[in-house]
Design goal:
alpha/beta; 6-stranded parallel beta sheet; two-stranded antiparallel sheet; 10 helices; about 35% helix
């Protein structure tokens, strides 16, 4: 399998910086690049390859931002970003479509500190986990100053908190976690990493292939790690508060091959792949097709796990999840080694 060279404009040392992509210049270069290397429009592809990039945003990928995913090396997401850019450029002629997810939040949401309060009028610190027992014992309660915003009374709000923690526990999900304010809509942290944005734009022009950008995580009453669906979809009364993205699942499954990378391996990537796995299993049973999982390639060197030294390390959970995905038939590969031939 042949790889393309990497265009000279790509500077791997800038993946940890925020800068403006020179769109007009890159567009002109992309057209010349396509001509020089005989790169055809994506509509001509007989074998459709998709690249799903999960939350490759400043808030997760740059050390000076709120939730930098350093992994155990301390430089995880920066290294991943370099390899993601390299993967896009070297496979520009093979990738038919790039699908991008963007974590999208506002200040008042269930995973931010101001949502909860204790008996001392204190909000939880970042990285606090909230269990069923914490709610049952009133260690944390719904912030009463938010009741009007959610059009709830206090008993209803407390029932919802208990329902939420019990739902997470019954489904084997991580404990409800209070994260630092991050991926704030309209903020710099919400934006894509500049180097990756540039690579996506270059691909768009060279291949005449519009990226498919998906926002997630704006529902204030549930966490939303997986792009396919939120952690909890119904409230304490059984009413639907969120839903799964069935249109996206169909889109991904209609590809001939799907590569997945991004942040974080232990959270948004793992839960996205797990949801995809569940749908593949359901489709396989209904269609008699046991090969659907084999079209999924997990770029292991383009994703890192959440590690907060001295606080939490999700590396083992993420690695265990990837082993489960491999047993089902998905392929765990490195960005410079994969081969579809």
């Amino acid at each position: 399998m042949s790889f393309l060279p990497v265009p000279s404009h790509f500077d791997p040392n800038k993946v940890n910086e925020v800068w403006r992509v020179p769109y007009q210049a890159r567009a002109a270069e992309a057209r010349l690049w396509a001509q020089r290397h005989a790169i055809q429009p994506a509509t001509d592809d007989r074998f459709k390859i998709g690249l799903l990039l999960v939350d490759v945003q400043n808030t997760f990928c740059l050390p000076d931002f709120e939730l930098f995913v350093g992994g155990r090396t301390g430089t995880g997401a920066m290294d991943d970003s370099r390899r993601i850019c390299d993967f896009i450029y070297r496979n520009l002629h093979r990738i038919s479509e790039i699908i991008v997810t963007m974590d999208t939040h506002q200040a008042i949401q269930i995973f931010h500190a101001n949502f909860l309060i204790n008996g001392k009028n204190e909000h939880p610190d970042p990285y606090t986990t909230v269990s069923v027992e914490d709610i049952e014992k009133d260690h944390w309660k719904f912030n009463p100053l938010l009741l009007d915003s959610f059009e709830m009374d206090a008993p209803t709000a407390e029932r919802q908190l208990l329902h939420y923690t019990r739902s997470l526990k019954s489904r084997g999900k991580y404990l409800w976690t209070i994260w630092p304010y991050h991926a704030m809509l309209g903020g710099i942290g919400h934006a894509l990493v500049s180097s990756i944005e540039e690579a996506i734009f270059f691909h768009t022009i060279a291949r005449y292939s519009q990226p498919h950008i998906i926002t997630k995580g704006d529902n204030p009453l549930t966490e939303h790690y997986s792009v396919i669906g939120p952690e909890v979809t119904r409230d304490a009364s059984g009413h639907q508060i969120a839903s799964r993205n069935h249109e996206l699942i169909d889109k991904l499954m209609n590809l001939d091959a799907l590569f997945i990378a991004g942040q974080a391996k232990s959270h948004c990537v793992a839960w996205t792949v797990e949801d995809l796995q569940a749908d593949i299993q359901a489709r396989g049973l209904s269609q008699g097709d046991t090969t659907l999982a084999e079209k999924v390639y997990l770029l292991e060197d383009c994703t890192s796990s959440v590690v907060i030294p001295g606080v939490v390390d999700y590396t083992e959970q993420a690695d265990s999840a990837y082993q489960d995905f491999a047993r089902m038939g998905m392929k765990i590969v490195h960005s410079d080694e994969w081969n579809l031939d």
